[in-house]
Structure formats: structure tokens, C-alpha cells
Give the backbone structure.
Amino acid sequence: MKKISIILYAVLFLAVIGSYALHFTGKKTGNAASGESATIAGVPADGIAYVNIDTIIFKFDMFQDRRNDLLDKQQKAEVELNAKGSRYERDARDFQDKVSKGLVTRATAAEMEQALMQQQQEFINLRDQLQASLMEEEQVMNRQVIDYITKFLEENKSNYNYSYVLGKSFGSVVLYGDSSLDVTGMVVEGLNKKYQAEKK
């Protein structure tokens, strides 16, 4: 029994030594004759890297342009809503003033009240429609930005030597990443260069 245990420990010891030797002296990718390392553009030879999603999006020129367009539309929608809201409030005050002073007949007051109710409903419908439209545009914008980033990563996988690019952000599945695997800056630079070239 003791002999079997000693043999097993010896075999395990040799296996560990062998694994250690293979790991640190094994064949590297790249051209050893020219002195190239196992990494290309800072991505390790195993091909796993990560990007900080929040940083990429907020430093990506395309996102800034689309967000500014969306903010302009939002401001125009607010101006339109405020104008209609002010008109409704003015008409409601005028109605109250005329009714309280007895300046209109009951039939006219009923017509005015009906018109005010319709005006209020139109205001609510417009508000809901503008909100839904802006929300949809924001979702489309976010999808377009993510799609652009994904396509860029696919197109440049051979240049950067990665097989996987993980997305790291607060609350994401990737809770920690070694900073040596972070290619955020490189990706942001490449994205902006490509986007500005296409924009011109």
C-alpha cells in the first residue's frame, strides 16, 4: 500500500514538473527568429482581452454625435410641449374667468369646456407620443453604436490578436480584469479614427 502511494506521489510530482516546464518553455506564437513576442498590440497570446464599455461609449465620437442629435430633438419636443401647455393653461384661465363673471351662456360654457377637454387630451397624446418616439430613437442609437463597435472588433481581430473581447462595466459579469488585458484605449482610438474617416 505504501509503495503504491509513493509511486502515485512520484508520478504526480513529475506531472506537475512537466506541466510547469511546458508552460514556461513551451512554443510561443510569433516569429522567434525576429525576436517578436507572443503578443500583438498588447493582447496576450491566449487571445483574451477586455474593454471598459462605459469608457468606450462615452469617448466614442459617434455616440457623442448621435446623443447631441437626440438632445436637439428632445429640446424641440420640450419647446412644442411647453407651447401647447401654455396655450391650454391660458384657455383654461380664460374659460374660468368668463364662467365666473357670467359672460357666456351655459351652452357656450359647455362648448368651451368640451373644447378644453379635447385640447387637454391632445396635449397628453402629444406628450406620450413624443416620449415614446424619443425613447425608441435612444434605443436605436444605442444599438447602432454597439453594432458599430462589434463590427469594428470583428474586422480588426487579426490586427489585435484577440479571440475574445469581454465587456467590463459596473455590475457586469466581468468583475475584475488584469489591466494588462485592457484594450479600451486602443479600441477607442481605432473606432474614432475609422468613424471620422467615414464621416468625412
